[in-house]
Amino acid sequence: MSKPADLVQGTLxxxxxxxxxxxxxHAWAISQRLKQVSGEVLQVSDGSLYPALHKLxxxxxxxxEWKVTENGRRAKFYSLTRPGRRALERETANWExxxxxxxxxxxxxxx
Amino acid sequence: MPDWRWLRRMIxxxxxVFRRDLVERExxxxxxxxxxxxxxxxxxxxxxxxxxxxxxxxxxDGMQQRxxxxxxxxxxxxxxxFLRDLRYTCRNLRRSPGFTVVAVVIMALGIGGxxxxxxxxxxxxxxxxxxxxxxxxxxxxxxxxxxxxxxELASAPLLADARANKxxxxxxxxxxxxxxxxxxxxxxxxxxxxxxxxxWFDVFGARPVLGRVFSADEDKPKANRVVVLAxxxxxxxxxxxPGILGRTIELDQQPYQIIGVMGRxxxxxxxxxxWLPLALRPSDFAVGMAFNGYLSVMARxxxxxxxxxxxxxxxxxxxxVVGAAPANLQAIAKNWGWGVRASRFTDSNAGTSKTPLLxxxxxxxxxxxxxxxxxxxxxxARMSARVPELAVRAALGAGRQRLLRHVLAExxxxxRLSAARRACF
Lengths: 111, 425
Known about the structure:
The complex is a heterodimer of chains A (111) and B (425). Chain A is α+β, with helices and mostly antiparallel strands. Chain A is built from four helices and three strands, in the order H-E-H-H-E-E-H. Chain A has helices at 11-22, 27-37, 46-59, 82-110; strands at residues 25-26, 62-68, 74-80. Chain A has a three-stranded antiparallel sheet with strand order 1-3-2. Chain B has helices spanning 5-18, 20-44, 49-60, 63-73, 77-95, 97-126, 156-164, 200-204, 231-238, 307-324, 327-336, 345-350, 354-385, 387-395, 400-424; strands spanning 137-144, 149-151, 169-177, 180-182, 189-191, 193-196, 208-211, 226-229, 248-251, 254-262, 274-277, 296-301, 338-344. In chain B, strands 1, 2, 3, 6, 7, 8, 9, 10, 11, 12 and 13 form an eleven-stranded mixed sheet that branches. A two-stranded antiparallel sheet of chain B has the order 4-5. In chain B, helix 1 (5-18) packs across helix 2 (20-44).
């Protein structure tokens, strides 16, 4: 597998928030889900996943709960908190603005 | 909608500090779960178990470092590190007792001197004990500009005028020295006391610990056979008897009923042992008495009123009084430049010692500074001997900030020891 595209700085938080917004997941499932949803394009390395999740937890955007997985293992499930939902909305709007601006610049160059 | 984010964060932080072992176990378990999942996934992709394990660990890119990053996210590393630094410092200081003793003694002298003088300044100038919000209390004074006279006394009519002006003054009270003979015991004693108006205690915000203070009705001639004792006098003369209230004692051959005992710290004016009602007569308030300053008049200003505002009103009132006075008194008042002013209670309380006190405070401040410089020199000398140690720390990955915090913890420990030492002096 080729090295995945580096994530634009600061977007990892947004992606993680978005993924746990859908349903509570443990970290392993989050990384799998991210890969799957992005069509294998976006991939967060195992090394940077945990610090990022712990940061979001300490910020109060997500909360952690120990639950049992479908195959009977105890795992730490992360879910979005209410302030986390607001942060997600904010970050999404930010991202759309930024992506739109970059897109405009790029298109302008080609014209 | 309330934002409970800070609460959640606070709980997490507290948990990280006080349930450190639990949090660590959880971190461990979370990583172990990940490793197992990943190994399973790799095996499912066709790797052998050993290859799968190697691939998993490689993907993690340094498990211990990742865990340390997660710990950093808890934002309580400072506390952890700090405690570790302190422990290390204590060991280190014990190993070099010479340095420790010298540094501690120098600092203790500096800190001891400045705290001693500061407590004096605090007690006299800033927060006299037993008095609430002393900065709001002013002394009303009489002055004769032409005679260069200015004294802390005022007249009964001024007391009445000031008391009537609720916009400027919250409470106004007056006192006159009244030393009495107390002869209930074999040997009669002279007790320094004061005759005070009913509002006197309100001016200082002083409360009795037992009983009550004078009512307005008792502050009148012929109704004034009651007395409030100072705390110390109560202990000294009556052994702190809690059943003292209502007892009648003889002062200057007159019976007085004890109605209250004042709070421990209150002794205004000047070390009073007891207070009697001032009981001014209506004649004391006559127009001509306005120029007869014989009362110590203190006023508590309303919260938002400044000394300048109070003085402005006093000045205006003095001119009004002069204008209304009989011609002969008016002439005298104008000739001698009679007027009324106010000064802060805290300033007059310290009296002439205010300036020397402040100079002393400055001096001990300088002594403290010199002590600090000496200890800083010592520390510097010691530090240069420890360069290799610091180099090793830096090589092991301690950042500039981390090293600084370490050194700071040492200085802090030195200071703490000195402060403890000075408390023993």
